[in-house]
Amino acid sequence: MFDKTIADYAGLEEPYAIMAEDRVAAEPQLSPYHDILIDYDWPNQAEHWEWVATAPIDEIVAWAADIRADEADDTEEPEPFKYPQVTRHSITLYPRQVRAAMALAHERHEGKKSPAIQEIIDRYIVAVAKGADDAS
Question: What is the pLDDT of residues 49-83, one digit of tens each?
Fold first, then answer.
């Protein structure tokens, strides 16, 4: 149990920052959220450290758990610009473009796939399978 007060940190530079870090390290409910509570560079950093150093633990845990859930949501549904991509000859293709290229190749080659298009599609499949951003 963390039982220090700001008076214990008197005379130190950024006392709330040090107190917040000590509290997160000492409290088992807070330590899993160290990255969110201490490591992240919040825009209102001084106010944030004071809050982490003094707020009720349940309030901090609920807030940090919400942040963690938002992080998980961001990774489950990537934005369009984060989709895996394939680069060939300095041309980047995204999933929608690959599907369009497949349809065009099918149409132009009377159902036969173009070797060049097929290579791009194969690279795309490898990129998706590996989770890579670039399969060139």
Answer: 999 999 999 999 999 998 888 877 655 444 444 44
Distances in Å between the Cα of 99 and the Cα atoms of 38, 89, 95, 102, 103 are 44, 19, 6, 5, 6
Under a CB-based contact definition with an 8 Å cutoff, are residues 82 and 130 in contact?
Answer: no
Q: Note every long-range contact of 11-17, with CB atoms under 8 Å and residues 24 or more positions apart, other chains counting.
A: 14/46, 14/49, 16/46, 16/49, 16/50, 16/52, 16/53, 16/54, 17/45, 17/46, 17/49
Distance CA 127, CA 10 (A): 54
- The structure tokens listed for 113 are 């796939």
Q: Enter the pTM of the model.
A: 0.53
Contact 27, 57 (CB under 8 A): yes
Tokens for 31? 């330590």
In the chain, domain spans: 6-76, 81-130
Residue 46 carries which side chain, given as an amino acid letter?
Answer: A
CA gap 56, 64 in Å, rounded: 13
Spatial contact of 102 and 61, defined as CB atoms under 8 Å apart: no
